[in-house]
Amino acid sequence: MRGRRIRSVRPLKSLFRLSLEPAHFYLLAGGWGFGAALLAVPHIIAPDYVAEYVGWQAGSPFQVELGFANLGRALLGILSIRFRGTFWVAPVVTNSVFGLGAAYIHLREIFEHSNYSPGNAGPVLVLDIVVPVVAIALLVGYLRKRSGESAA
Description:
This protein is mainly alpha-helical.
């Protein structure tokens, strides 16, 4: 035991670098691309149901607007299938601002109006914070990896 050396973490770093692009790709195209498209549908065709689920008043055209915003987010994610590189900055910035902004609204609703509806205070709140943070970290790693490859 005395003569054993600590193994290098290089293989782990290599694995991490190799997994950056696929992980980011699936988040952009899958989660934010097709996922946002699926979110757009209920906001557009059943806005009153969605409003009540979130704990807001039904009858506002805002839900339909939000559906079309989700559709735009979806298109950015789906376009990430075709376009790579710095194009990925656009969906990350758009979806991060959207998610963190939504988290702010959810928290305000909780503290000011005690809105603990599942669509306001449930997993959606956690995801609105965690997913953008993960996406930004993946983007930074991905862009660093790309810049290192182009410099080599």
